[in-house]
Specification:
Structural class: alpha/beta
Oligomer: single chain
Radius of gyration: 25 Å
Number of strands: 12
Largest sheet: 5 strands, parallel
Strand order of the largest sheet: 2-3-4-1-5
Number of helices: 23
Strand content: 5-15%
Shape: globular
Length: 516
């Protein structure tokens, strides 16, 4: 990020009054640099947390905060808040990469910290995706959100880099729309009059750092362009772009997508047959039990080994998105040396391709494809995956609820809960790779049911609110706010007996937790 952007934004971030600030933009907009400069300028205690592959959970978050605040173990959210409140100086919590914990218990804990924050605590959460927080809550009403359009370089700021080259300034501003990372990779080519997309570094950056982080249907909609919305793929493209902080009208990005469309060997999550035959659509079910069909036929797993079936289930959860080979190796061969795990993965991939596309020659796979160092199950427009559909419906419902669109929220949240038919991949039991993902989706379902109960209560649909709250508690009975909502819904329905019964069960839950 250029220094002029920091000069423009850091004072407001370091000395602002909003209890919560969100920085949401793709890679290359200088979010990390901005957090670093803000930390340097902040007149008080700065706490940091950066979730990554091995430190995604609530224990990691609390342990990190406890260490920085010098708290004894065990650390809880309440202890962190109390320690901050007791300090005389202001405290700023910076989280870089919050998209890694999207929809997880750790994200819920961050929301709890923001909602219950004492006056001297502020949070800044930066990531590549809008956190699934309930910004309609009174405590979060003043949340500030900065997206790509606020983080980009203006033409005058670009001009400060090239004070004697106004033509270069205008060209870079037009091509990159002030996207700092893309501008940096394009600058030399523009200076010498070449096409920036001749640079392999720029193309790789756009593919790996930007496009692979986006939902496949958003990438498909962007490839088609604004004049071809593409049915269901393009219907929610503007909202998805906003959720990921993306500016879609960046000419270099558009040109790169057009070139990708022209290459027959690309793989972005959409299936394209080159032999004129119709695409073979996958249908995947991962909640409650695993089912997979291809072109309408159930797949035959009778002759496959357990690890091949586990590989199919793991890739199905992430269908349409590349999964790096190291992630696959760590999940399925956690105790094996790297060379053994690598060989095992090659064998399992080959066996899985035999199930998915029997008789397909080497390099001609259309369903299970390799993209760089990653593997992916490809979804064509006619494919279905309950995990993707659930995520999309829950996201739509929570966003609609946050905007006060009650009818749309109720429809989308209800659809999400119908898709969540049970826990994720029960066939895999307590396998280490599936447990955190399973917990993530369970928590998303709880949040969707909680939000639906709030929406229905607000619409004076007490019976529907009762059903939604009860659904949330069936998934997680230790939700204090949902118990209170259930009691209120029973009262609104004119059923004091049911309300008193819910109050007793709520009290029992609190007693179990040692709260009362």
């Amino acid at each position: 990020m250029h220094e002029t952007v920091c000069e423009r934004l850091v004072p407001g971030l370091a000395r602002g009054t909003a209890p919560l600030t969100l920085l949401v933009a793709p890679a290359g907009y200088g979010k990390t640099t901005l957090l670093t400069r803000t930390a340097d300028a902040f007149p008080g205690k700065v706490l940091h947390w950066r979730p990554c592959r091995d430190t995604l959970g609530v224990p990691s978050l609390l342990a990190s905060l406890g260490k920085q605040l010098e708290l004894p173990d065990p650390v809880s959210v309440e202890f962190v808040l109390l320690a901050v409140e007791r300090r005389a100086d202001p405290v700023l919590l910076l989280v870089d990469g919050v998209h890694h914990v999207h929809g997880s218990p750790a994200e819920a804990s961050l929301e709890e910290l923001a909602v219950l924050a004492p006056r001297n605590l502020r949070l800044i959460l930066a990531g590549r995706r809008m956190p699934a927080l309930n910004l309609t809550r009174l405590e979060l009403a003043d949340t500030a959100v900065l997206r790509a359009r606020e983080l980009r370089l203006g033409e005058s700021e670009i001009a400060s880099v090239f004070p004697d080259a106004p033509e270069v300034t205008r060209k870079l501003a037009e091509l990159t729309q002030g996207w700092p990372g893309v501008l940096s990779l394009s600058r030399q080519a523009v200076l010498t009059g070449r096409d920036p997309l001749e640079s392999a570094a720029l193309r790789t950056y756009l593919d790996r750092e930007v496009l692979e982080a986006l939902p496949p249907r958003l990438v498909r909609a962007m490839e088609r362009g604004p004049d071809d919305p593409g049915g269901h793929d393009g219907a929610d493209a503007p909202e998805l772009a906003e959720e990921y902080g993306l500016e879609t009208e960046v000419p270099l990005l558009r040109a790169h997508l057009a070139r990708r469309c022209a290459r027959p060997d690309r793989h972005t999550g959409t299936l394209h047959r080159t032999d004129g035959a119709p695409s073979a659509s996958l249908s995947l079910r991962c909640f409650q039990r695993y089912e997979a069909t291809l072109a309408g036929r159930p797949l035959d797993w009778s002759r496959t080994r357990p690890r091949v079936r586990a590989l199919a289930r793991l890739l199905s959860v992430h269908a349409g998105r590349p999964v790096h080979r190291e992630e696959l190796m760590a999940a399925l061969w956690p105790e094996s040396p790297a060379h053994t795990a690598g060989r095992g993965l090659q064998v399992a991939v080959s066996a899985l391709r035999t199930v998915l596309e029997p008789g397909t020659g080497r390099g001609r796979a259309q369903v299970l494809v390799r993209s760089g160092e990653a593997y992916m199950l490809v979804l064509d427009p006619g494919a279905s995956c309950d995990v993707q559909a659930f995520e999309a419906a829950a996201r739509e419902g929570l966003r609609a609820a946050a905007r006060g669109e009650a009818d749309r929220a109720a429809g989308a949240l209800g659809r999400a809960l119908r898709l969540y038919t049970g826990e994720l991949l029960p066939e895999d039991g307590p396998a280490e790779w599936v447990v955190p993902i399973r917990e993530q989706y369970r928590n998303q379902a709880v949040r969707a049911a909680h939000a639906l109960a709030e929406v229905e209560l607000g619409r004076n649909r007490a019976a529907a609110a009762v059903a939604a709250a009860a659904h949330a508690l069936s998934l997680d009975p230790f939700q204090d706010a949902v118990w209170r909502l259930l009691i209120a819904a029973h009262r609104q329905a004119g059923d004091p007996v049911a309300a008193r019964h819910a109050e007793r069960r709520h009290a029992q839950m609190l007693h179990t937790l040692g709260v009362v």
